[in-house]
Give the backbone structure.
Amino acid sequence: MSNYPEVVAKIVNDYLERVKLQLRLVSVQEQVEFLREIDSHLLEAYQQTPGEDDVARILEVLRKFGEPAEVVADRLPGAMVRSGTRHNLPLYIVGGIFIALFGLPLGSAGAGVLVGLLAALAGFLAAYYAVAGSLLLVGAVTMLVGLARILLPQLFDRLVALGYIQMGGPVGEFLDNFPPFYQGLLMILFASTFAAGGLGMLWLGRHMLRGLRFLFSLTFDWMRRVAQSARRSLLHGNRETPERSRASLVRP
Amino acid sequence: MGVLYGARHYGYSLVRVLSESSSISLKEGTIYPILARLDRDGLVHAEWVESDQGPPRKYYALTPSGRQLFDALSQELDVLVSLVQQKGKGADQPAPAGKKLVVRKG
């Protein structure tokens, strides 16, 4: 028989279920005892909380009691340590040998491939930004040279004579067809194209980073879920099902 | 531990005493991990007692080693308080003779 009105009983049951979920790794006996204690606390607190609205009363009680994660925080580490020693040790030893023989080498290979992929992606990213930076640098230098050609033609000629500026090959021959002013203008045009290319690559890189981050988080999330389910199945392999003993506690 | 020193309490009553007798503001549920830790360390003893007002209650009481630890901690706190008070008065006096401030590890 429940001591709560029906709707309140549902809320309390839901809360206790959430606490129970946090206690997955604790032994069944501890789970039952802990939940009994909390149940007793909640009932007394509910009875002591004044108010007309039953739901508001129980919500106030639960608010004061705290989130399930806070309540069970200290229960978990010790229980995790104990849970490994209590159940069917030989099976764990056999499992450990199998993992050592087959799981670790395969896991190492998988990890190696993953690390390689990540390194390749990181290398690609570095190269991409290096090209973008180079384009920007070339653009800036060409812009300066072009401005010098227009505004300070004597300085430009001197730099050419000293060998600091070398305009050989087809580009040099092409520019020689124009007077100095137009040469400068053409250089500025080239510089603007390079700079625009560099800036465009930086802009694209931002989206690419987002995409890569999404890819990484997807991969890591998947790996985490696989590891968690493997660990859970290992830990819960031989354990008595918590539902059986919990049934006596949770109200209908 | 101080509250349990005088009398045994169950979780809810402990929370009530703490919230009424001090300015400590805590989420009520957090008292249980603390009690569990004290129980695990053998500093409190817990037992279920039937209640005519509702479900059974789990009562906690300090064990002898819990009392011992509480006494030791109280002494350390006294020393600490006296040191702070001395500092507050601006006196460059040495710490009280015969007492050492123990720094616990772990």
User: Anything to note?
Assistant: Residues 78-85, 240-252 of chain A have pLDDT under 50 and may be disordered.
